[in-house]
Specification:
Blueprint lengths: L1 H21 L12 H5 L2 H9 L2 H12 L2 E5 L2 E4 L5 H6 L31 H10 L2 H5 L2 H21 L3 E2 H18 L14 H9 L11 H12 L2 H21 L4 H4 L2 H7 L4 H32 L1 H13 L12 H13 L9 E2 L5 E3 L2 E3 L4 E3 L2 H5 L21 H6 L13 H18 L5 E3 L6 E3 L3 E3 L5 E4 L6
Parallel strand pairs: 2-7
Antiparallel strand pairs: 1-2, 3-11, 4-7, 5-6, 8-11, 9-10
Helix pairs in contact: 8-9, 8-20, 9-15, 10-12, 10-15, 12-15, 14-15, 15-16, 15-17, 15-20
Length: about 475
């Protein structure tokens, strides 16, 4: 009898809650959307699990307009004009509870910290360290790593076996970023395959929990760790921790050069060692998949489109004296990078923020305080009003971009919470592409599959986990 009474009470409570969310008394009842998104966040979590969140919400926008209720207390906006009030003005709105799920080893990093004001001390170290000027000083290191990547690809070419570009580009990302952050490379380019790939994959796969209701996160996080995270991932994570702790130990040896590293500066401001480890792990391995994915997709595009490859090769050969930071001024190179990152957003789904106490008004719609609101890069990048023929790869559109194009291109986010490593990432891409294309290693290559499919989580994941190309043996038909 007691169990029946509890069950009835829970059902009654749920029905009462659902009725309230559907009623005109709910604070966002005036915002359009299907009844099922008003009742529960189950629809949103279902499409997260299926990897179809961005496409599913795009369908809602096509039916209900640019401002849509996608969960009981969540609103998504598909209009670049809303970028200013949400992400940029006065530092933007605070992040939501969702980002706590991306903490590293239980510690809130400079990325996952929710309230803007709580990041202030760490930003004093992070912003100068990842500034454009600091990145420019590391050009020789990036060029050396790019040449090592070319050597790996040349060996792959000589073996006439399909190569996973995603794995090779992740190795480049790990070594360049670790060298930049810690002053020494992890050594991924010396490995046949990235040994810590399982922990990089786990960084992406934890996004399955991104839309879990806050009160259920503890339970689902426990289940995820026990049932989904593989032993290989845990072993790789232990290897990462060991390497980072060793590198940080060297960073704290008291010498002036070591204190110039990112962890050395964090420790100097009084941050506990375990938090320094978390920040270091976040700085390196949180970005490994995003950069590795972007670079591999660009190389795949060059292999699959001979005309684009030839245009880039011609531009680089005609401007052989240009290198380093000046590479970003080359229109074909810059256009190919921007167009690839537009079509294949590494973060396709909405970047959630919480509206302040006074709420916000947009498009004649008032959104009250305490509501989760956000814009998905997928919606802006594929908006045909801003990017005509949005699914067509056209790097030339970036030769003379409109104001709306520049506003809506957001692979690194927008405002004060935009990716701090964006200057480093763009330099890593420019230098790697320049060195690889000039080497001619991609000549004669072809793609293994005609298309690449993605799972749309907070971070995108390549279905199948590989982006492969191959080279035909000389003389073969």
């Amino acid at each position: 009898m007691l169990i029946q009474a509890i069950s009835l009470a829970l059902v009654f409570g749920y029905l009462l809650s659902a009725a309230y969310r559907l009623s005109n008394w709910h604070p966002i009842s005036h915002i359009r959307g299907p009844w099922w998104t008003a009742v529960s966040s189950a629809w949103l979590q279902y499409h997260t699990l299926c990897g179809t969140q961005a496409r599913a919400t795009q369908t809602l926008h096509q039916k209900y307009g640019p401002v849509v209720r996608v969960a009981p207390n969540e609103v998504e906006i598909a209009d670049g004009a809303a970028l200013w009030p949400i992400y940029i003005k006065n530092g933007g709105f605070d992040k939501t509870h969702h980002y706590s799920m991306l903490d590293i080893d239980g510690h809130a990093t400079v990325f996952s910290t929710i309230q803007n004001r709580k990041r202030a001390e760490r930003l004093k170290v992070a912003l100068p360290f990842f500034s454009s000027a600091s990145v420019h000083r590391q050009v020789p290191m990036l060029e050396a790593c790019a040449r090592r990547l070319v050597k790996r690809l040349e060996l792959d070419k000589a073996n006439h076996a399909p190569v996973d570009l995603l794995d090779r580009c992740r190795c480049y990302s790990v070594d360049t970023t670790s060298k930049y952050v810690f002053g020494e490379a992890f050594g991924a380019l010396d490995e046949d395959r990235l040994s810590i790939a399982p922990v990089v994959d786990n960084f992406v796969e934890v996004n399955l929990l991104f839309n879990i209701p806050r009160h259920l996160y503890g339970f689902f996080s426990f289940c995820f760790d026990k049932l989904i995270v593989k032993t290989a991932a845990k072993q790789a994570d232990a290897k990462v921790d060991s390497w980072i702790k060793d590198a940080i130990g060297k960073n704290l040896d008291g010498t002036a050069d070591k204190q110039k590293t990112y962890p050395g500066q964090l420790a100097a401001m009084g941050m506990p060692l375990n938090q320094v480890v978390s920040e270091g792990k976040d700085a390196i391995f949180g970005a490994t998949d995003a950069l590795g994915l972007s670079l591999s997709l660009i190389l795949w595009q060059l292999v699959s489109d001979a005309a684009v490859h030839a245009a880039l090769r011609k531009e680089l050969d005609s401007n052989s004296e240009i290198g380093g930071e000046r590479l970003q001024s080359l229109p074909v190179l810059s256009g190919i990078i921007k167009e690839t990152m537009r079509i294949s957003s590494t973060v396709p789904c909405k970047l959630p923020r919480i509206t302040p106490q006074g709420g916000m008004a947009f498009d004649n719609t008032f959104i009250p305080g305490g509501v989760v609101v956000g814009i998905a890069p997928y919606m802006l990048h594929l908006n045909e009003k801003v990017f005509p023929q949005p699914h067509t790869f056209n790097h030339e559109r970036w030769y003379s971009p409109t104001e709306d194009m520049s506003r809506d291109w957001m692979p690194f986010g927008k405002g004060a919470r935009a990716c701090m490593g964006r200057h480093l990432a763009m330099m890593q891409l420019c230098i790697a592409l320049s060195v690889i294309v000039k080497s001619g290693v991609l000549e004669g290559a072809s793609t293994v599959k005609p298309t690449i499919d993605f799972w749309e989580w907070y971070n995108v994941k390549v279905a199948g986990g590989k982006i492969e190309i191959g080279w035909r043996e000389m003389g073969a038909e």
